[in-house]
Amino acid sequence: MKSRPVHLAVSLLLLSISAIAAIDRHALVSRFNPTRNASNPITPMQVGNGAFAFGADVTGLQTFLPFAIMSSWGWKNDSLPPGKTIEDVENYKGVSWDSHGRLVQYEFGGEASVQQWLISNPNRVNLGRVGFLFFDARGEVLNITEQDLTNVQQELDLWTGTITSSFTFQGENVIVQTYSAQSTSTIGIKIDSPLVKSGRMGIFLDFPWNDGSAKFSAPFVGVFSATSNHTSVLRTGGGLGRNVEAEISHSLVNSTFITSIGGDKFTISRNSHAAHRYTLRPTGNGPSLSLSIAYSLDSPKSVLPFKSVANESKSLWAKYWSASGFIDVLTGSTDIRAHELQRRIILSRYLMRVNEAGDTPPQESGLVNNGWYGKFHMEMVFWHLAHWALWNNWDLLDRPISVYALFLTSSIQRAQLQERYHSGARWSKMTDPSGRSAPGEINELLIWQQPHPLVFAEYEYRAKKSKATLLKWLNVVNETANWMADFAWFNASTELYDLGPPMYVVSEDTSPNVTRNPAFELAYWRHGLDLAETWMERLQAPIPKVWTEVRQNLAPVPIENGLYAVYEGLEDTFWTDPAYINDHPSLVGLHGWLPPITNVSSEIAKATADKVYTSWNISNCWGWDFPMLAMSAARNGEQDKAVDWLLHPLFEFDDIGMPIGGVRVPTPYFPGSGALLYAVAMMAAGWDGSNTAAPGFPTSENGWNVRVEGIHRAM
Questions:
Q1: May I ask which residue range the UniProt record assigns to the signal sequence (predicted)?
Q2: How confident is the model at residue 422 (pLDDT cuts 50, 70, 90)?
Q3: E strands, 424-580, where?
C-alpha cells in the first residue's frame, strides 16, 4: 500500500514528460491509414495535390466505379440556349429593387433560359477515367466484376500519399501503387503482376460528356454513354513532349482537355470511332508496368516519369505532415472519444490537402464530385479555408485567397456600376474562376461573405507581422469596408445604421424583403469594421470617417425576451416555429465563432446558445453547424459539450474520413471538415483572451491530454 503514492508520482511524471515531448507525428498519422477490402460506392480513396485529384476504387484505379479525375482548372461552357446568342448573355439583366431610395439591379429575374445558362456555366469537368482491363489467353477482353477478385486489400499511406492496392485474379497476384504529382496534374501508376508479363492485363482510358444539366453530379460526374456530344483524337509517335508516348485531345463544345501518357513501352488504340474509350497494352517483357498520365489544357513539353511523381508525393506529403501545425488529442488521453476525434483530425488534414488547396476556393465537394455545377461559394470560404491559417499552412492558403485581389475589380464594378452603391466592392456568393456572380435571389442577397477577407487579412498579419502584408491586403481591406459602410443605411427615426432589407441571413430561410438587422450579420459587420480600422491604424493611414460612423452607430443586436433574435422584429415565438429553427443555428456564432464584440453580450449569447441547444431542430443541422456549436460551447466554458458537438451522431465521417452530406447535400460536404479543423485548433491552441492550455478541451483529470505544435490561436 505504501508504494501507491510512488506509482502515482511516476505516472504523473510520465504524463508530464509526454506533454512536453515532441509528438511522434509519423506514428500518429500512420496509425490512421485507411484500409478497404471492397470499393465504397459513394466515396473513393484519393490522391491529389489540392488543385488536382484522382479518385480510385479498390483496384487503385477506376476499374469498376467511374470516380472522377477533377481539377481546379478544368471548366467548360455548354452551348447557348436555343435561339440565344452571346450578345443575349452579355446583355442579360435581372430585376431592380428599391433599397431605401436606391434602385439596385440584381442578377436574377431576367430571361429564364439565359439566367439558367449563367447559373450553370461554366461547369467543372471530370477529366476522364482510368481502369484495368483483363484479357483471356486469346486476347479477348473479359467482362468481370469486383466479385471476381479475391484477397482484396487496399491501404492509403497518408504520410506519403500512396494508395497501395493488391488483389488476386484467376490465381495471379496484382499489386498497384497510385500517386499524384504535387507540381502538375499527373498520376503515377505502377503495376506488378505476372498478368502484365503474360499480356493478360491492360488499361483503359475513357472520357465522359460533361454538362451543366444537373446541379449535383454525385457520386459520379459526367455521362460515358453520350458519345456523340463530344469528340476525342489520339496522337502517337514523334512530335510529342518529352516522355510522352501518346496524347488524347478531348473536346467538349469549345473546350479541349489534353491527356498525355508516358512511361514503359505500350501500344494504345481507340476501341471504336463511336466511343471515347482507348485500350493501352504493355509491350515490355517484364512483370511490371509504370505509367504517368498527365492532364492539362495544352500539350505539355514533358511529362514527369513515374519515379518523379512518386518522389514528389513522398517528399511533399512528409513535409506537410512535419512542418505545419499538429494536434495530438490521443496520446495520454483516457476518454474513449479521443480515438475517433484524432481519426477525424488526421483524415481531414489529408483530405483537405488533396481537395482544397488549389488556386481558387474549393467547391463544397472538393475534387470528389460536382455540387452546384462545380462552382464555389464565397460565403463558405471561411469554413473551407480558415483552418489553414490556424494550422500554419500559409503556402496552401495563399493560393485560393488570392482570388480576393483577382476579383476586386469585378466586385467593385458589381457594387458601383451594376448595383449603384457609392463605393466599395461587393463580394459575390456563388461564382467561378472568372469572379462573375451566378444569378439567383440568394446568390445576390446574401451578405455574410462580405467581412471574410478582413478576417483572412488579420490572420495573415498576425502570422507574418510585416508591412508587406499590410500593403498586400490594403486595397481589398479598403474596398471591402467601403461597401460595408455604404450598405448600412441611416435610419432617421432611430438615428442608427441598419442592415437590410433586402437581404438573406446565414440560414437563408427568412423573407429577404422584411429581414432587417439580423443578429449574426450585425455582429460580424461590427467585427469586420473593427478589423478594417485597425488595419489603417497599423499603416498610420487615415480611417474613413464613414467607417467609424457606421461602426459606432450600428443598430443593436436584436433581443427578444432576454435572448438574441434572428433579426429585428421577428416574433418571439420563432423558437417554436419550424420556419426558423431548421437550418444553420447562426445565433450560437455570436460568441464562439466570433470573438467578444462590443455590441454582443457574452451572457445573453450564452443564454441564447443554451436555448438553441434545447429548441433547435438539431436533426436538421449539417456540416459546419456542429463545429460552430462546439466553438460556442468552448468559449462559454462548456468543454465537455464542445467535444460532444464535434462527435455528435449526426456529424458523420466515413471510413476514409469523408464528411457525410446527409439528407441535405451529397457526400462529401467538405465545409464540415474545414470547420472541424478550425474548431479543434481553436479549442487546442486557444483564442484571444484565453489563458490556459487547451482551453476548449476537458482537463487531464477529465480524460484529455492535448498536445499542440505550431498551431496559431484564434481571434
A1: 1-22
A2: very high
A3: 430-431, 489-491, 496-498, 559-560, 563-564
pLDDT tens digits along 119-147? 999 999 999 999 999 999 999 999 999 99
SS3 of 193, please?
coil
Of 654, 649, 652, the closest CA to residue 672 belongs to 652
User: Which residues does 435 contact at the CB level (< 8 Å), separation at least 6?
Assistant: 403, 406, 407, 410, 411, 428
Global pTM reads 0.95
Q: In the structure, what pLDDT confidence band is assigned to residue 20 with cuts at 50, 70 and 90? A: low
Find, among 230, 205, 224, 168, the residue nearest to 37 by Cα.
Answer: 168
Whether 14 shows a pLDDT value over 70: the answer reads no
Q: Which run of H or of E encompasses 524?
A: helix 519-538
Distance in angstroms (rounded) separating the CA atoms of residues 262 and 536: 53
| Grid coordinates belonging to 61 | 484505379
SS3 268: strand
Single out the residue of 73, 42, 189, 74 nearest to residue 130, CA to CA. Answer: 189
The residue among 19, 223, 13 whose CA lies nearest residue 123 is 223
Q: Is the N-terminal amide bond of 282 cis, ω within 30° of 0?
A: no
Edge to edge, the sheet with strand 255-263 lists 35-36, 150-157, 162-169, 172-180, 186-192, 288-296, 255-263, 246-252, 231-236
Contacts of 377 (CB under 8 A, 6+ apart): 361, 363, 364, 429, 430, 431, 449
